[in-house]
Amino acid sequence: MKRILLAANMYPNKQFPSYGVFVQNTERILTNGGFSVDRVVLEKKTSKPAKAIGYATYYANLLRKGLYGHYDAIYVHYASHNALPLLMLKRMKPTVRIVTNVHGSDVVPEVASQEKYQPYVKQLLEQSSLIITPSHYYESLVKEKYGVDTPIAVFPSGGVNQAVFHPKEKAAARKELQLDPSYRYIGYVGRLDVGKGWDHYLRAIKLYTDENPSHRTKFIAVGSGKDEAAFKQLAAELGIEDVLIHYGLMQQSGLASVYNAIDAFVFPTTRKGESLGLVGLEAMACRTPIIASAIGGILDYVKPGENSWLFEPGSAEALKNQLIAFDQLSDAERDAVAEAAYQTALEYEESAIQPKLISIFNEN
């Protein structure tokens, strides 16, 4: 039985149930596939001192287990935050096999402070035995930016957990969330943070409601983050608080209820480093089509007009126009797209993608 050390500086807990949940999904896939999986992970910390202590402990455990543990591979998520200790480990123990899964800002830094990691990311990718990317889009980015000779495999970030994300009656989901059944609902799930597009979502709501004063639509936003105060301020400035329902952090079961309660899921990211967009697939797995930015890994699975819709990234006007176009579809047209979205999501379900990850670790 092959032994794998799973390393990640993002891992969910009760307080932050969605933080790095794809890492947990990956762990479950490997375990179910017959691998012996040990892990060294870091759960979310909310204060600077706790974060500093957390990272120091995490790095120390990663080095200790990497040096003295007997593993066939170290499977690490997030190259940028793990590059330095792993490069150190590689110097101390040259025989160690590192499989690096790159995500998001690993390759496309979102703020200036992330740029400093780029030379170390390149070195880690050069010294890895294998690179895993969540999408073909991201695979192309890695090849273009770093020009490394390390083999690259595509695996979609732990996939969709169908035990959680699956279709159920819309009326039942709305009842769970105590939503007024006389309204239709559009939703957003994501961090309230840079590049996530929450501001474009709010501005599109304003444009939509101004153009449709007699509408019977309410808009849901689920998430928290560094920009939560700015989110609330913008909603107040736009005067859309009466049609906007905001939930904070939710367990995955709650997110599934949201996906099932809404008629369409808005995915307004502007991040070129959107390496897959798992929330979009989770919504589709609940038979809810998405209205998404035409950017990043989303382009790997969205077929415009067939299983979901796309709009110009960063354009509240384009999003508003897509919401109006969605209004004009017949029930039969919406149902056909919803079914196609569901069928697409099934291709990313854990049991469907499990053989891919197992073969990656068996063959490399």
TrEMBL record:
GO molecular function annotation: glycosyltransferase activity
Pfam families to which the protein is assigned, alphabetical: Glyco_transf_4, Glycos_transf_1
Domain Glycosyltransferase subfamily 4-like N-terminal: 48-158
UniProt xrefs under InterPro entries: Glyco_trans_1, Glyco_trans_4-like_N, Glycosyltransferase_grp1
Keywords from the named record: Transferase
Domain Glycosyl transferase family, first and last residues per copy: 171-342
Keyword Transferase (UniProt): yes
Record carries keyword tRNA processing: no
Protein name (database record): Glycosyl transferase family 1
